[in-house]
Amino acid sequence: MSSQDPKLKLLKSIPLFEGLGGRELEQIARLVDEVDVPAGKVLMRQGEPGNEMFIVVSGSFTIDRNGNVIRECGAGAALGELAILSEGPRTATVTANEPGRLLVVGHREFHSLLDVAPGISRHLLETLARQLRALDEDAVA
């Protein structure tokens, strides 16, 4: 895959994967499926189990929690990223506002990659630690 590949550029822009090298991004890109979704499609429902992450290529999506809209997002947004790290209940409902295209990364496939690519695991741990530290600093300030 070329470093100019749109899929690689999109993956590189996701905070969870930001800073990974080209080889690691290519390994992740090989796991990704591209899917088209129609307007009105519910990608995930709050409280239901999650086992994949979505990356928005195109389209607009609404994220709501407990029936309240949190935000809308579009191209470049990562949705449900915690699900590829640890399967568990979804923390929000996400619905397509218009037809869109997504990259989908499954939990099982991603963990199979982590088993053979410890550099990616280490990167994810460091990224999550930085994000937690930032949340803690925000709470203290």
Key descriptive features of the protein:
141 residues, alpha+beta, Jelly Rolls, four-stranded antiparallel beta sheet, 5 helices, 10 strands, 30% strand, globular
Structural summary, described in words:
This protein has 141 residues and is α+β, with helices and mostly antiparallel strands. The protein has helices at residues 6-13, 22-29, 82-85, 107-116, 118-140, and strands at 33-37, 42-44, 49-50, 52-58, 61-65, 68-73, 78-79, 88-89, 93-96, 100-106. The strands form three sheets. The protein has a four-stranded antiparallel β-sheet. A four-stranded antiparallel β-sheet has the order 2-9-5-6, with no helix packed on it. Strands 3-8 form a two-stranded antiparallel sheet. Helix 1 crosses helix 2. 23% of the residues are buried.
Helix and strand layout, with pairings?
Elements: H1 6-13, H2 22-29, E1 33-37, E2 42-44, E3 49-50, E4 52-58, E5 61-65, E6 68-73, E7 78-79, H3 82-85, E8 88-89, E9 93-96, E10 100-106, H4 107-116, H5 118-140
Helix pairs in contact: 1-2
Strand order of the largest sheet: 1-10-4-7
* Beta-strand proportion: 25-35%
Query: How would you sum up the major sheet?
Result: 4 strands, antiparallel
By CATH reckoning, the class of the domain at 32-107 would read Mainly Beta
Oligomer: single chain
Measured between the Cα atoms of the first and last residue, the distance is 44 Å
Helix content: 25-40%
